[in-house]
Amino acid sequence: MNKKRKQETVVVGIIPARMASSRFPGKPLKSILGLSMIEHVRRRALLCGILDDVLVATCDREIAEEVTRFGGKVVMTSDQHESCVDRVAEAAKGISAEVIINLQGDMPLLHPNILERLVAPFQQEKELKFTDMMGPIENAEEINNYNVVKVIVGLSGNSLYYSREPIPSLKKESSEHSMPRYKQFGINAFRRESLMIFSDLPRTPLEKVESVDMLRLLENGFIVRMVSSPYPVVGVDTPQDLKRAEEMLKQDSLFCKYKENK
User: Could you tell me the pTM of the whole model?
Assistant: First the structure.
């Protein structure tokens, strides 16, 4: 367990990872400045003061061996999961935690401070079950990038819909009537019992069409509170993304805090 702070709520981060990525096979073990991508994510998450522990959930022995050789904790899961949240839920069944954060193993520039923002709504609203992280879409390329999940947010701050297509419609937008556009990072938090509810629900039609886990909740009438990140989050979906992440890490102030850790 992470001993950096004391709090009543036990919060655990789980990083789902697998070698068989359809867009970039083997990416969790790709090296960036001397560390595998999964190890960057794990070490950066450990810098977050609210996390009691960080685990990696995987079905691949190669990933498990990489994490454990640095002293990390691994939970072996089924190789049949189509949703990363389902993999997280399987791993969470064997641990004691009130809040579970689903981290992404392909975000080597994860800033630990955003995890505190993700958990904060649970402390303020006892009935809230799910939170999800988002940030502004930065350029036109992202709007049309299938790998970038877009999210529409209601006036209440809750998600209305997710898509890999440009939303809202571009047809009627103009400089006089432009709308803020947001992308989902794929970093979400669940109360433990809520995570199990998610896992018990069958995959839904829109979830399958859009390939976005959180649509399972919206299609079943649940509320997902969106939380905005003040830090950029870089996902690695292609070899080109990997090169971009490497260049950004060379200038990253957190890298020096964990690069020599064993």
Answer: 0.92
Q: 32 forms bridges with which residues in the sheet? A: 35
pLDDT digits (tens, 9 = 90+) for 84-108: 999 999 999 989 899 999 999 999 9
User: What is the sign, positive or negative, of the torsion defined by CA atoms of 84, 90, 94, 98?
Assistant: positive
How far is the C-alpha of 203 from the C-alpha of 198, rounded, in Å?
A: 9
Report CA torsion sign: 102, 104, 108, 109.
Answer: negative
With H, G, I as helix, E, B as strand and everything else as coil, classify residue 228. Answer: strand
What single letter denotes the amino acid at residue 171?
K
The neighbouring-strand residues paired with 136 are 182
- Give 193-227 pLDDT, tens digit per residue: 999 999 999 999 999 999 999 999 999 999 999 99
Task: Identify whether 1 is part of a domain.
Answer: no
Question: Which helix or strand (DSSP H or E) is residue 124 part of?
Answer: helix 113-124
Query: Is residue 4 in some structural domain?
Result: no
Domain that holds residue 171: 11-258
